[in-house]
Design goal:
The protein has 90 residues and is of the alpha+beta class. 37% of the residues lie in helices and 37% in strands. Strands 2-3-1-4 form a four-stranded antiparallel sheet, with helices on one face. The longest helix has 14 residues. The termini are close together.
Length: 90
């Protein structure tokens, strides 16, 4: 198992990105799991002015599934118009 840190910026809360990622991960049968921490700007102002949120994910992934896991996250972010700032192995 390897730990990966992923930083994502976009409409994390409004588009339910974390739940969508969890559902895709469960359906993919990859040997991986993650925890997340989401930073939201002052919520009412963020919604009115479309300020993006920031999510930091810490995933534990089987080394054999690492490339598929990265591909899964990149595909979801592309579909949901989110930006991946970094994917870093710890």
């Amino acid at each position: 198992m390897i730990t990966v840190e992923i930083i994502i910026r976009g409409d994390i809360i409004e588009r339910n990105i974390i739940l969508k990622l969890a559902n895709r991960l469960r359906d993919s049968r990859l040997r991986a799991d993650f925890s997340s921490c989401i930073a939201v700007p002052p919520f009412l102002m963020a919604v009115e002015r479309r300020y993006p949120s920031l999510a930091v994910l810490y995933a534990t992934v089987d080394i054999e599934d690492l490339f598929q896991f990265k591909s899964l996250i990149q595909g979801l972010c592309m579909e949901e118009s989110c930006v991946i700032h970094s994917i870093r192995e710890l």
